[in-house]
Amino acid sequence: MKTKTTLILLGAVGLFLACTTNPFTGKKTLALVPNSQILPMAFQQYDAFLSENNVVTNTSEALMVKRVGEKIKNASETWLNANGYSGYTSDYRWEYNLVQDDQINAWCMPGGKIVVYTGILPITQDEAGLAAVMGHEVAHALANHGQQRMSAGQLQQIGAVAGTIAVSGSSQETQQIFGTAYGLGTQFGVMLPFSRSHETEADIIGQQIMAIAGYEPLEAVELWQRMKANSGGQAPPEFMSTHPSSDTRINNLQANADNARAEARRFGVTSFKR
Ligand SMILES: [Zn+2]
Question: Given phi > 0 = left and psi -120 to 50 = alpha, else beta, which region is 268?
């Protein structure tokens, strides 16, 4: 009897401890598996992905991905530090890689592990457009949307694998979980879209981050207009099927551009690159 009570109490404490606060919204979210378990797993999956794909190095486009990624990282940390969340990304191992692949896609795994596919570059067009995409994806990662997109069962499975650690290759199953939760392309079949509220959140946070990084926030509006123009016709590509570019999305970004610029000015950013 006593043991049972203790177990229940421990369980309650565990759940309580597993709540994290989304620094951008102040909302509490349930983290069934803590970063200390998710991040090593994500880093391993990221390295596996890179080893199985064609990473582009030293072209001007690859260097642009690294340059913009670094600025987005710095802007995120500037914002977090200023808002009482210094150390929030201390376990991150930021990395930005361009992968040769015609898919229109980009994603950020937990811990700042970013991949941009060459197929999305004709739509991002320039540095500011790329900053809009990377800001958006980083926002999903910072807000832990991927974890919330996984089922409790999948998270437990990852926790179990991470608990027994882990550096011994990557099981197909774990790859599949990460694939569906973070958008690693189509090889694993199902792609789960983020919920509409997560998309809105990532849009607003991402736009703020890109402005702090010195990019014109209206470029995000133009990016999603180009996405929309591109999604007509045949089956929409992966990124667009999980990121439907609605008029609401475009209008929200338009309406929030002034706020994003004002937020950036607080950090001394006065010019915004187009
Ligand atoms: Zn998104």
Answer: left
CA of 162 to the centre of ligand 1 (A): 26
How far from each other are the two terminal CA atoms of the chain, in whole angstroms?
A: 66
Mean pLDDT (the chain) is 84
- Going from N- to C-terminal start, the domains of the chain cover 34-265
**24, 14, 6, 16: which is closest to 207 by C-alpha?**
24
Q: Give the pLDDT mean for 68-90.
A: 95
CA 159 to ligand 1 center in whole angstroms:
24
What integer pLDDT is reported at residue 118 of this predicted model? 97
Query: How many A from CA of 164 to the centre of ligand 1?
Result: 31
51-86 in b/e burial notation, b at 16+ Cβ within 10 A?
eebeebeeeeebebbbebbebbbebbbbbbeeeebe
- pLDDT tens sequence across 141-163: 999 888 777 777 777 777 766 65
> What's the alpha-carbon Rg for the chain, to the nearest Å?
19
Question: Active-site positions?
Answer: 137
Give the residue from 27, 28, 9 showing the smallest Cα distance to 18.
28
Neighbours of ion ligand 1 (CB under 5 A): 194, 202, 243
Amino acid at 48: A
Q: Could you tell me the distance, in angstroms and rounded to a whole number, from the CA of residue 33 to the centre of ligand 1?
A: 22
Pick from 95-99, 102-106, 183-187, 248-252: least confident: 183-187
- Please tell me the predicted confidence (pLDDT) of residue 133: 97
Mean pLDDT of 67-87: 96
* Interatomic CA distance for residues 100 and 118, integer angstroms: 5
